[in-house]
Amino acid sequence: MINMKAPCALRTHRRTWGLSQQELAQLLGMGSRTHISRIEHGKRTPTMETALACSTLFGVPLGILFPQTAVEIEERLRGRLSRFKEGTLKTTTLAGERKRDLCARALAGIDGEVHFAFA
User: Fold this and answer.
1) What CATH number should be reported for the domain whose range is 10-63?
2) What single-letter DSSP state applies at residue 100?
3) Global pTM value
């Protein structure tokens, strides 16, 4: 079961495979274990490269590895999508329709998923 209060599940997956923070740091091309510790405790957001590397290494979707980050991104995106969609309501062009459809689809995906949309 995923703990939504935990900043990420990286520690769980790292320990499942018997990796130390230093070993994971080496696999990810980082100099020290401190960076891994800060990510695991939610004190630092992983870079895109680090997040994708962890997802690939452990075979786990980003939204499951980093649920707190996924929720924060989805909340910010939801607000921007809503504002953008409102701005397209007066447009009657095909492009305007497509933009509204994209916004509606994205909002439905965010609202329909349980914060694991990053597969």
Assistant:
1) 1.10.260.40
2) H
3) 0.74
